Amino acid sequence: MDTLTLWQLAALAAASALVGFSKTAVSGANTISLAVFAAVLPARESTGVLLPILIAGDVLAVLTYRRHAHWPTLLRLFPAVAVGVVAGTLFMMWADDDAVRTSIGAILLFMAGVTVWRRRSGDEGKEPPEESGGPSRTGRLKARSYGVLGGFTTMVANAGGPVMSLYLLSAGFRKLGFLGTSAWFFLIVNTSKVPFSVGLGLIDARSLMLDAAMLLFVVPGAYIGRKCVDRINQKLFERLVIGATVLGGLQLLVG
């Protein structure tokens, strides 16, 4: 922390507050936080600093929306996510910062484009997760594809939020169900990533000292998000999620 300027600390504090806001209001907006952390800190090390901050935001989101989670969807996703996390760990063993940014940015933009195309063609939301008959073969394949990509992107750049946001939108989730399912998903996944990040040297005593200071800003961000979410209608909510995904992908590509 003693090597950071006041302006850099202020940028990290604002990005930490945005993490809290994104967890309780517009999931996927924390890709902006990811870009800020990667700009202020070395990109690879920034993922280790950001992870405990994300977990703190996940805890606050679960406390707020825990009753709205759809567990069949979560259980369907977790095996594929585990495969993606392992693949992301292997990728991080050799990838440099440029490879990480380019890969994740390209994936996010591609998936945002697919989501917009499907929504305009009327294919989205035809298989809501609440259907008693369970998911179709296409639905299971989609869950596995998004799960692997979500696990991979969250491991290499903490950028799984936009991927899973696009999946939950495509599955027909409404606002509270979206936030509750997303909250539990990322609390479990991000916590499971900690041993991998420690093993890769991304989390250490120095990074935790910086985290301790930044956690103070997550709580007010989450509070503001909770107050704002009731004022956002469903259509605007979906547009904000997709817009945050595109913005995050562009930031990673040009960063």
TrEMBL record:
Entry similarity comment: Belongs to the 4-toluene sulfonate uptake permease (TSUP) (TC 2.A.102) family.
Transmembrane intervals: 48-65, 77-94, 100-117, 146-169, 205-224, 236-254
InterPro entries: TM_pro_TauE-like, TSUP
Record carries keyword Transferase: no
PANTHER family to which the protein is assigned, alphabetical: MEMBRANE TRANSPORTER PROTEIN YDHB-RELATED, TRANSMEMBRANE PROTEIN YFCA
Keywords assigned: Cell membrane, Membrane, Transmembrane, Transmembrane helix, Transport
Topological type in the membrane: Multi-pass membrane protein
Region listing for Disordered, in residue ranges: 121-140
Subcellular location(s) per record: Cell membrane
Keyword Cell membrane: yes
Record's protein name: Probable membrane transporter protein
Pfam family, one: TauE
Coarse class of the protein's main subcellular location: membrane
Entry superkingdom: Bacteria
